[in-house]
Every structure is written in C-alpha cells, then in structure tokens.
Request: fold
Amino acid sequence: MKNSVFNLHRLPLCTCLLKQGDVKKNSHPRKILWLPVSLFCLHLLTLSGTVYAAESLEQAWDIALKRDHVLASAQYKEQAAQHQLSSAQANYLPKLAVEAGYLRTESEPAAKINIPALPMLKGASLPFAQDSAYFGGVTVSAPLYTSGKISSAVAAAQAQADASEARTKLTRSELKLAIAQSYIAVLRAEHANEVAKSHIGAVSKHVSDVQELFQQGYVAKHDLLASQVALANAQQLGLQAANALELSRAAYNRWMGRPYDQAVELVDIGQAGQTPAESDLNTLLQTANMQRKELQELTMQSTALQNQAASVRAGHLPQIGVSAGYSKLENRYLAEDKAWWVGVVMKWELFDGGLIRNQASQLAVNAQAVREAELDVREKIALQVRQSWLSQQEANARMQLVSKAVEQADETLLLARERYRSGLAPNSDVLDAETRRLQAYSNRDNALYDRAFARLQLQHAAGQL
Reply:
C-alpha cells in the first residue's frame, strides 16, 4: 500500500523470532526474550516507514520550491527592489561628508602690490598662502523642498518593490502548477503501465486458450496467428508504457533535485474523494481579477513609471536645500584658518533644451504601454478561468461514465471469451473486447488525472494556487 506507514509483510519476521528456541509458553526465559525482540521489530517498522512512505503533493512542492533556481532568482530580484526602495528613502535624510587633502604648489601664491600713493612698493608681491598646506572639513547637507522629486521617487521605488513581490508570488504559483503536472504525469504513467501489464496478461491468457484449442483441432491457425499478433502489439504497448513511466519519473526527480533513476512513490491524488466543492464561475472570475499576480505586477509597474515621470518633471521646479559645515585650511597668512559656516541653496533649472520634458514623457508613455498590456492580460485571464472551469466540468462529467464503462468492458470480455470457447463467437470478438477493455481503463485513468489537474489549473487561473 502506498499510503501505509509500514509494510505488513515485515511482521512475520518478528513472529518467527518470537518462536525461536525451546522456551515454554509461560516460562521466565520467554518474558526475557520479548523486550529485545520487540525493540528489533519496532526498529524494522521504523526503517520500513522511512523507505516506503509515499510523497504527497504538498511535500513535493515544499522540496522543489526550496531548491528551484527560477524562484531563487525572483526572490533575489525582490530583495534588490527592497534595497532600491531604501536607497530612494535615504534621500530624505541629511548627508554627512568629510573632506581632507594636501596641496603643494610650485611657489607661494602672492599678489602684486600697486598702490599709487606708495610708489616705492610698485612691483612688490605679497604672499597670501603657503606653498604647501593641509586642508579638511565636515559638511552636512539636507533637502528642504524638492517640489515632490524625492517623494515621487520613493513612491516609484515602493511600487516597483510591490511589483517584484507579485512577480515572486507569480513564479511560485507557476512552479507549483508545473510541479503538480509532473507529479500527476508520474501517477498517470504508473496507472498506464499497470493497465498495459493487465492488457498483456489478458492477451497472453487468450493466446494460451487459442493455442490449446488449436492443438485440439477446434480452431483454425488464423485465430492463433491473429492472437499472437495481438500479443506482440500488447507487448509493444507495455514497452512504451514502461518507458513513459521512466521518463516521467526522471522529469519529476529533476524537480526534486534527485538522481533521475531514483525510485518514486507518490500519494495518489486522483481519487474522487479528494476533489473539493466547485466554485461559481462568476466568483472565480472576480477572484482572479483581485488575486492574479500578473495583474498586480503590471499595475505596480505602471504606477512606478508614472511616479518616475513625476519625479523627473520635478527637476524643472525649484530645489531648495540647506548645508552647514566646518572647514580648516593650514595657512599662516590668515588670521583665522578655520571656521563654521551655514547656508541655504536654491537651484531652479529654467531651460535644458527639452531634456527633462522628453524624459518624463518617455516614462509616461511607457506607463501607458504597461497599462494596455495589463488590459490584454486581464482579458486572457478571464478566458483562462473560463477554459479551466469548463475543463473541470468536462472531467467531472466523464467521471460519471468511466467507472460504468470499465465494469461493462470487463463483463463484455468475459462473455466474449466464454462464447469463443463454446464456438459461438469468432476470435476477433475476444480481441475487440480486450481492446475496448484497454480503452475503458485508459479512459478511466485519464479522466481521474484530467480532473485532478483541471482542479489545480482552475486554482491557478483564479490566483488561489
């Protein structure tokens, strides 16, 4: 059993251990033997639980998402957007700078003296600085009014961070659907392989019956040859089904980060009792409009571009800031070589040849382009939800037919075999009945897993996965 915690075939080993020796039924040595044997059996059950425990879809999601490189890349981009937001917000804060240096000139800077009242000083020079000096200072600056340039840039960074977060959630949802598809592909291939084995067994049994009847002279050689051809075809189907199973397991193990040839045992999610109650189509459409991450991402991207355009436009408006500091210049000719200072600075760029205007227009047009893309995606999502909902309705309707068809196909095959053995039906009736039985079982399994995947597709389309 796939869902059992341990395998019952392990229990006889414990029973055999308890029966070893010539210990009498109620004797003291038997009581002494019970404790180590019990511990040994418990250890075997624990080991078997580790080996044979089936993997659920939730466990598969947890394992695959932790190691997926695409999701990790989206998460790193989300972190980068958060750093960009912090960078934009840092423009609100004062800036503190320290400056220091050393200056060396060829000669001492000096000024020529030309005072008409003192003609004897004509041509003389008066030094005002040393030929080498150290200088340094500390400056503090902060914006006072930027006409919305900083606030718009912060709003744009926040919208871009929200868009990155939505992209990460979208990536996670898409990966979950892809992993679920691979998970279901393994289950589908396992059932197809079992059906193929059953088909080979049924045709082999019929070949044995025809062989026996042929040897007794009751049927023509044509029946034997036709049955053997059918067996060869069934064996080819078996080979194809086994290969498809290995391919699906390899694809699933790739998601899990495991060796491609590792054995896979999964919890079967195709059972009827695991399908939740259906939702109304209009409700699903409304949910998709509110929760689909593609729409949230595009909305935030458009908002970010609009705010970036506003921030650029603010460059044409006055920018006011305050700065203060302390500076020192090594100069023996100065009465005071150090001083505190403070000032208010305004910058108003009146003309730049249309640079800022065109940059802002470019961002605004890009925002409109993203808005149009959002409207297109919204229409596609509405169609996707409707298609997924119809697919689920079809799968549910098929489920009501396939179980009955399987029962009828089994019964038809039994009747065809009895009629053939009695000489009341040709060999082709048995082969046709077996072909219909194979198709009925395949239809049943396809309906099971189509319904399971349709449910997940509908959850993804509605933004609930």
About this structure: The longest helix spans residues 149-215. The beta strands are 95-104, 110-112, 125-127, 132-145, 319-329, 338-347. Residues 92 and 143 are 7 Å apart (CA to CA). Residues 1-52, 272-277 have pLDDT under 50 and may be disordered.
